[in-house]
Amino acid sequence: MASVIDERQAEIAEEFAMFGDWMEKYEHIISLGKELDPLDPEDKVDENLIMGCQSRVWLAAKLGDNGQVVFTADSDAIITKGLAALMVRVLSDAPAADIASAKLSFLDEIGLHSHLSPTRSNGLQSMVKQMKLYGLAFTAGA
Amino acid sequence: MSTFDVQAIRAQFPILSREVNGKPLAYFDSAASAHKPQAVIDAQSRYLAHTHSNIHRGVHALAQEATEAYEAARETVRAHIGASSTKEILFVGGTTDGINLVAQTWGRTRLGAGDCIVLTRMEHHSNIVPWQMLALEQGFDILVVELNEDGTLDGEMFEAHLARNPKLVAFTHVSNALGTVNDVKHWTSRAHDAGATVLVDGAQSVPHLPVNVRDLGVDFYMFSGHKTYGPTGIGILYGKEALLDAMPPYRGGGEMIGTVSFEKGTTYNELPYKFEAGTPHISGGIALGAALDWMNGVGMPALTAHEHELTQHAHAQLEGIEGLRFYGTAPCKAGVVSFLVDGVHPYDLGTLLDQLGIAVRTGHHCTEPLMDKLGIPGTVRASFGAYNTVEEIDRLAEAVERAVSMLR
Fold first, then answer.
1. Does residue B35 fall inside a structural domain?
2. Which among A45, A51, A53, A133 is annotated as catalytic?
3. What is the least distance, in Å, from the CA of A80 to any CA of chain B?
4. Which ipTM was obtained for this model?
5. Do A122 and B347 touch (CB under 8 A)?
């Protein structure tokens, strides 16, 4: 049975397949960035800051009542924020163990894998690593 | 300008015919690294295909030919920057390597507790960190010259620091982040009056301006091959002969020795070889010579004039964009236009420009102390080389406008 994480990845790939060119794709990412629920002010703190050389990402994680991990994120760059929104959409509200073991392939499928490369140093690669660490920590705590 | 045919120049750079993201490449990142003309590519591959051997001390024909080619390149460098002798021209890995060499030899023996040195707010990390590392060990103070609003040096503060009799004044000729051209001759003279030794980072000046180290009066000057249309991994450290002579060697090994003995101790080679331990980047040195020959073939005055026109044109085309603010508006600038647009993160702008085939650099440009002082995360920097055209700049301005409308 496909995990909820894989289902969401497939859904995003389908969504992006509709776009004809790079502009539509980026316009969509930018709008996702603009629509992302803002972080609670108490979460937008240095402890939740993931430093990238080019842009900064904030990531907060909580354990929901149903035992699922809830992520919230923000970035000072809107494209990074849009991509962070996609990460949140894929990994938030999922079981901790699934997050820890998730294989993220959707960026490859939508042709945006370069945004996860270390040379971009936009903080996204560290964000994914941090999300998985949260998954691991909440699994151990459960 | 009539002798400067930019299309003929572009035709000599194979990489410029590439497409990026389905669009013709407009490369505005020469301040990070410049592309290579065919003459440089040929010089390096010709050496590797026909001449290569280890240099110096070989009796066979290839060793002699390789040595002659390498030493001829050293002479080309000497002539290009107006040094007195090839003894003053050291092949190093690049500008960063040259500054570290001076810090670890001259600096280590001359700077101690109670001393101070002067740096400026616009220095590249390469001209900050080697001094900070040494200061931690040796206990001297670092004084920083701040900048005026337009990105020029605060002259009063510079004078005030000089009044404290620093042992060293180390500053950049041209700012990589702002494009400001500093008055090296004036400040070198003032620093010498104060009894200081003067080191100037020429990484961003040698690609754009005629440089004569004797006229400038500097004690140390360094630049990188890959920013002057040559290869990476090779650069030049110029030092006045008397200073280099008095400095201890940097790295030990082959080539830098006179005689080596377990019993009688080891003696060192004469200049410039004393500082060139190990087999050097021979093909890089030869290709660097070819790159300077190429620049001289174009003509430094024509090159400077062309890039001045590009910089002026970029300012004129970009300034109409709503909310765009320039960083670095000094009267004398070279090769760089740095800017931000209100409400737009440089990373986002750089990402969309890349989609349009336009290569700019975004971020702090290895000048974090400058960006912190300006209170910004970084800038978008367009930097120019011989091969850029006014039409490309028009494309840049249109692309910035288009990207900004997407991001707002």
1. no
2. A53
3. 8
4. 0.90
5. yes
